[in-house]
Amino acid sequence: MQGLPKEAYTLTFGKAERAPIRRLTGGLMRQQPEPNPVKGRTLALSEEQFDDDAMVFDQVASTSILFTATLGPAAATQGPAIEMSWRGFRELGIWSKPGGAPFLCIEPWHGFASPAEFDGEFADKPGLMHIAPGARRSLGYRIRVS
Q1: Three-state DSSP class for 29?
Q2: Contact at 8 Å (CB) between 10 and 44?
Q3: In this predicted model, which residue has the larger pLDDT, 21 or 116?
Q4: What are the chain's domains?
């Protein structure tokens, strides 16, 4: 919702997310994973979370996520919600502009930035989806606003 800070929002994952996350430096995936900021299934949002670039869930357990705002001084009234579900994607990127922005990007991914230590051929890059000539692969997502 327009005018609310990121701190008014939460992301609720379809499943508990326990695996570490990854971050980027200079557009490349850092070698070391970082602690997962999700508590059970809930990620409380803040602008500062994105000062260190995207949160990359390269071992995401969920196939859906709910983005909601809590309204009112009692912090009990739910505002509008956006639910995203996906199939066929192995990773999830969540990002916003470092330093603050009036948006949040929730992107199911199949592949991710090159690891900082990777120095091989593009075809050998970790995370790529290889599809044989003539073969097909179907991936999909659904967005529901309520």
Answers
A1: strand
A2: yes
A3: 21
A4: 6-116+137-145 (2.70.98.10)
